[in-house]
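# nightly structure sweep
# worker-07 picked up a monomer target from the shared queue
# config: single-sequence mode, recycle default, output format = structure tokens
# input follows
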Amino acid sequence: MQATRRLAQKRNRIERARSRFDNRAWVVARRARAKHLIELGGLVAKAGLVELADDDRAMLYGAFLDIAQQLRDADADALKLRLKWRGSRAFAEDIEAAPLRREDMRRKDETGAR
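# output follows
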């Protein structure tokens, strides 16, 4: 009984290791899509939308549908330019603030360790 369980565990370990290096086209495409979706979800969280919507997925989906409709309208070019500028600026501010956040975290760790 125990030998069978150990054999199954070893087989599972080998399968997991093999799956990490699976380079079949559909597996690579699936990983890329999953990574892309995770990054998009991170942007939703980073923008604070999860908290603002109180984690209401219907509300978030509705907001995305509204934005999508606005981007389909005739004057979408101006909106796209404004949104892209605002997002680029926010990314730049995050990059500038990152060293300060790391320094704050380091200080908290030092004071908490005492």
